[in-house]
Amino acid sequence: MRTLIVTSGPTREFFDPIRFLSNPSTGQMGHAIAQAAVRRGGFQVVFISGPVSQNFTTVDGAKNINVVSTEDMLRVVGENLRAGDILIMAAAPADYKPERKSTVKIKKTENQRINLVPNPDILKAMAEKNRAFTPRATLVGFAAETHDTEKYALGKLADKELDMIFLNDVSKQGAGFGSATNEFTVFFRGGARLELANESKAALGEKIIDCVLSYANEHA
Ligand code: CTP
């Protein structure tokens, strides 16, 4: 059976035992997509989630894997993705991590300078693996942007060698991190585009699965 992987939520990069860098992703959109994929059937759904609230940590009927850091997520995605599979990267992995993690709590009297080093890009790493896959895996990205939205989404579609990218403008009301609703413009490899109007994340989860599966079936 083919595997459909959905990643979800933020990642955390600790710089001491109790403090980390992260972002406000709630994991709600990724969770809705994975639920829709399980309902659709015909795939083993692997749900890989960063630290989020209990409601969005696991999906009934999926293989659930919880991770903390971007490097953990990269490893687990790499272990699960094979030729012909589908990867939907709805997670918001931290792009940078502290160069060093203190083994003890850093005190406020100490010099607070945190040097950051880049994390690996999971989609780019999978795109590289994909070049050796027959048939290719379908790679799906998300882009949450505040400005020059289309330019950045199209840049990511090309740069990460994606099949499609779901762009949302997080500066709009009722879209993005923590909102109950969302809306997307979808850009496909080959130039097609599609608008998904504002509605609940649960309803959009179904439409995202429709979009991904119809593209994957056409290009199988
Ligand atoms: N992504 C990834 N690995 C990372 C960061 C992001 O695979 N280390 C994925 C996200 O899951 C998303 C897509 O890449 O599907 C775009 O993520 P985004 O944060 O918008 O893009 P970045 O490449 O991180 O660029 P920037 O932060 O500069 O906008």
Q: Briefly, what is this?
A:
This protein has about 220 residues and is α/β, with parallel strands linked by helices.
Q: How are the SSEs placed, and which strands pair?
A:
Layout: E1 3-8, E2 13-16, E3 19-21, H1 28-40, E4 44-49, E5 63-66, H2 70-80, E6 86-89, E7 96-98, E8 116-118, H3 122-130, E9 138-145, H4 149-159, E10 164-169, E11 181-188, E12 193-200, H5 201-218
Parallel strand pairs: 1-4, 1-6, 4-5, 6-9, 9-10
Antiparallel strand pairs: 2-3, 7-8, 10-11, 11-12
Account of the protein in words:
The protein is α/β, with parallel strands linked by helices. It has one domain (3-101, 114-218): Rossmann fold, CATH 3.40.50.10300. Helix content is 28%, strand content 29%. The chain has five helices and twelve strands. The protein has helices at 28-40, 70-80, 122-130, 149-159, 201-218; strands spanning 3-8, 13-16, 19-21, 44-49, 63-66, 86-89, 96-98, 116-118, 138-145, 164-169, 181-188, 193-200. Strands 5-4-1-6-9-10-11-12 form an eight-stranded mixed β-sheet, with helices on both faces. Strand 11 and strand 12 (193-200) form a beta hairpin. Helix 1 crosses helix 5. The chain is globular. 37% of the residues are buried. The model has no long low-confidence stretch (mean pLDDT 95). Bound molecules: cytidine-5'-triphosphate. Cytidine-5'-triphosphate (CTP) binds at residues 70, 89, 91, 93, 95, 119, 121-123, 141-144, 156.
